[in-house]
Amino acid sequence: MRAIIFIILLYYVKKNFVINDKIVILILGVAVLMIIQGALYGSLNYTFVYKPIWMFLAPYLLFRILKLDYFKYFFNIVYFTTITSLIIYSLYTFIPPFNEFLRNLFVLIYPYSGADWARTILIFHIPQPSGFFFERNGSIFHEAGAYGIYSMMAVFINTIYSKNPFQKKNLILFIGIVTTFSTTAYIIMFLFLSYFLLTGRTNILVKIVIIISFFIVSKGIYNESVFLEQKIRSHYYTQMASIEGSEKNVRGRFFALGMSVKSFLESPVFGRGIDDETRIDIGEIGAFGYGIPGLFARFGFLFALLYLFYLFKGYYYFCKINQMNKSFIYLFIIVINIGLLTQVLFFFSTFIYFFYIGLFKKELSEK
Question: In this predicted model, what pLDDT tens digit does every residue of 191-233 receive, in sequence order?
Fold first, then answer.
């Protein structure tokens, strides 16, 4: 990321580009917030100098170059990597020698990392062994759940452009999502498909039968699947119980969400945890920022409300200029934010990009 920022900055220096005042205020505001958090929680260090820049500058520079064309590139990248990952995933899953070859190859390439841990090259991510027959397909992403969220974002974007939710490229993305074995990805894909089945021109009785059948099948798969059913039950009870206990560094979505709410209630104005060191005593260091609860916990309600206002404004404007109706816009906002509840993607470039669309809506409207 730092290399990307440096390269883009060189491009802008040659163009005599001046950064917008709003971005300077945003970066300085987050830096001040980090200083306050560091002073309150005994971890004042130099991260406030660079972290706001890495977080907000790269997406802004891309925004200045690509404007709304960014999402065409985003979709093409996710679609291409889905195709390549499905090919490699199929070979990896059904041909044991290929599986062993890839793992041995990665051990050779990355001798400094554990042989049984997940590893990534440019076009595929080899997952950590799960103990089940089917491994989870993470494509190029750090884990399968993140890939599922990005794939659903790509499905939405392609639907916005093509006006066809069942377009061929979307169907390939759906196959990719199925191979993630991600509970959250399945839920948001179900909501997406249900919406278009209910709002399409199909006979109402057929729609109801399809939706009920899909729900029953999904419920049956959930109940029969050791991977999904036991994982969710065990994770929920152990992690929620640990919130009130004395355990530290408990990792998991439920714990992180619960601690986000608890942390926000304890520090609602300034938040806690933009820098990991300011939340080191409450555990879940690497995954404290899941979804909207994590946003409020880390940044406090003033910044969180401001960020959400422009983020949702960006979602709305992007859909509106592409002639999507209000019900689709609401579906888009709800489904994406359900997905973000289980991932630390809120401040990744694609989602900050929507924030900038909202922040610079007037400028885009004048183009």
Answer: 898 888 878 766 676 667 666 766 666 665 555 454 555 555 5
**pLDDT tens column, 8-63:** 666 665 665 667 889 999 999 999 998 898 888 877 777 777 788 888 888 888 88
In a 3-state reduction of DSSP, which class is residue 347? coil
Instruction: Write the DSSP symbol of residue 119.
Output: E
How would you class 108 by CB atoms within 10 Å of its CB: exposed for 0-12, middle for 13-18, buried for 19 or more?
exposed
Residue burial 208-223, b: 16+ Cβ < 10 Å; e: rest: eeeeeeeeeeeeeeee
* DSSP code at position 359: H
Q: Is 349 helix (H, G, I), strand (E, B) or coil?
A: helix
Both tokens of residue 226? Answer: 């050791």
Strand partners, 120: 125
Q: Is 163 left (phi over 0), alpha (psi -120 to 50) or beta?
A: left
Neighbours of 128 (CB within 10 A): 14
Residues with Cβ within 8 Å of 158's Cβ and at least 6 positions away in sequence, in order, are: 75, 79, 167, 169, 170, 173
How much is the CA Rg of the chain, to the nearest whole Å? 22
In which element (H, E) is residue 120 found?
strand 119-120
CB 331 within 8 A of CB 38: no
CA distance 89 to 83: 10
Q: Round to whole Å and give the CA distance between 345 and 331.
A: 19
What pTM value is reported for the model?
Answer: 0.83
Distance of alpha carbon 223 from alpha carbon 230, whole angstroms: 9
Distances 156 to 16, 25, 68, 71, 207 between C-alpha atoms, Å? 36, 32, 15, 11, 21
User: How far is residue 275's CA from residue 273's CA, in Å, rounded to a whole number?
Assistant: 5
